[in-house]
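User: quick one
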Amino acid sequence: MSIISNNDIAHAIYLASKDKSKEEQSLIFKNVIKFLVKKKKIARVPDILLRLGKIINNYENRIVGKIFSKEKITETQNKEINQILAHRYSVKEVILNEKIDEKLLGGFKMEVGDEVIDLTLKKKIEKLQEHLTSNK
Amino acid sequence: MNTNNIVENLKREIENFSTQIKAEKIGKVLEVFDGIAKVSGLSDIKSSEMVIFPGGETGVALNLEEDAIGVIILGDFSKIKEGDEVKSTGKILEIPISDDILGRVVNAIGVPMDGKGAIKSTKTYPIEKVAPGVITRLSVDQPVATGIKVIDAIIPIGRGQRELIIGDRQTGKTAIAIDTILNQKGQNMICVYVSIGQKDSKLRKIEARLEEGGAMGYTVIVSAGASEAAALSYIAPYTGVSIAEYFMDQGKDVLIIYDDLSKHAVAYREISLLLRRPPGREAYPGDVFYLHSRLLERACRRNKEYGGGSITALPIVETQAGDVSAYIPTNVISITDGQIFLETDLFYKGIRPAVNVGLSVSRVGSSAQIKAMKKVAGTLKLDLAQFRELEAFAQFGSDLDESTKRQLERGKRAVEVLKQLQYSPVKTEHQVVTLYALTKGFMDDIAIDRIKEFELGLASYSENNAKVFYKQVLEKKMWDEKGEEELKKVIADFKNNFTR
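Assistant: Done. Structure below.
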């Protein structure tokens, strides 16, 4: 018995609905739901959607990440960060969801996938503490 | 140092402090149970890579799945909770090491646990390493003197060999290992004793015994106790062999004892089942053979061009009701270069060490014996086998011819000679003299209950009087005619006084 992974299903949905008109797409989605119900896999929908999102981003050459900062990031800063990240991950488009976190004290922190670039003041102070205590 | 100084120092430190901007791979704990953590993220992690949890606990990534990894936690997992950040280190698990580790008791990750303070380490060694290849190896031809007569004479162990000690519970497996360590004093050998899943009380006893015998100076004990996590039991033997490799890399000969590998396999089975790997025979995972073969392959004798040194491994396996055909015993028997088989029946008959000579074998064999020992012990195994057969046969009838009777009497004396008390290793030269006296028939007319007394007396008497013979055996490893004549005369003299 072969096992169909959630990733396979998401991939199939993407390939089937790519470049299709609205009507065609809604028909495809109906069929997908029917298929999932028939195969008793309807509980997997949230995970399939998550994977579908990743697959679409991957095909469209785009990354989605989060940015944490103490204060709202200015327009110019945002542009620069976007440029750097686009270069780093060699993608066309970068979408950053901004989040405000007072505890960071200053600076900002970016999360893309499982990669974290931490440029906050909080982290720096932690590092300094580590440095000062380890030398003694 | 006054306050100003401290402030100045701090200022300087802070000024010199710089951080590098770097992207870190971070995972999140999805679930924790029974010493196992499922972690999401960490997409670039390698198999067996070390990861760090927030409290400083380390773990090892064993299962790499599509979007999560299975990590075994080395240490206390009660503080790790769902959502904790996990960092990868990019390194295979390694242990800190230096020469100061000699005489210490360390846990499975090389941290001292004997209360004698920290060990200053100069190097780190990875616990998993590929075993030395064919080109770097030498054949085994140097003996490991165990000081146990039956082993040195019949089942000799060579430096670089892997000899399994197998038997039921309470048959003296650990005793053989400990006696061997005790006998390595002055033999230019470093010993590593790996205790896996043993009771702490037993470990304490062993440590005290080694201390008393002056053996801790050249011994390291690695312990993963019965109360610790299975993950620690799983990595303890690899830690042990890494310590052994550290000393081998200095060109030294090392003896390593794994006590015992059946508990190691059980610990690995526990981890594997928790990681949801499919169970096979006796519920062990499919790679349980590889688990032990990659460990024991690291025992070797290296040639001079590659640094020399050797690792001799004595794994111990406990059987259930003498069943050597169970999964783990057959696996380890096929990996090792021979086995010392201990039997409950013999043990309770008073034949201790309870070695079953018929089933025990050393595949490296007599090439690991000195010439003198080879000469006196050559036929001993066969003689004993014939004796066993005759003994069974003789029970049916009483009418026996002279030669059979003689063979039986000789056999009984051989069995008596091979008995030995615990913690009383015998020097190789004494063994040679005793076995010489036995095989040349000097003991045939000594009463069986006086054999032990005769043996002890002869050892000290001959050492004082057969100086030429002893010198030849010690230096040339073999005697010549002159030495033999002298020994014969000395034994005859001693016997005269003894029987009078």
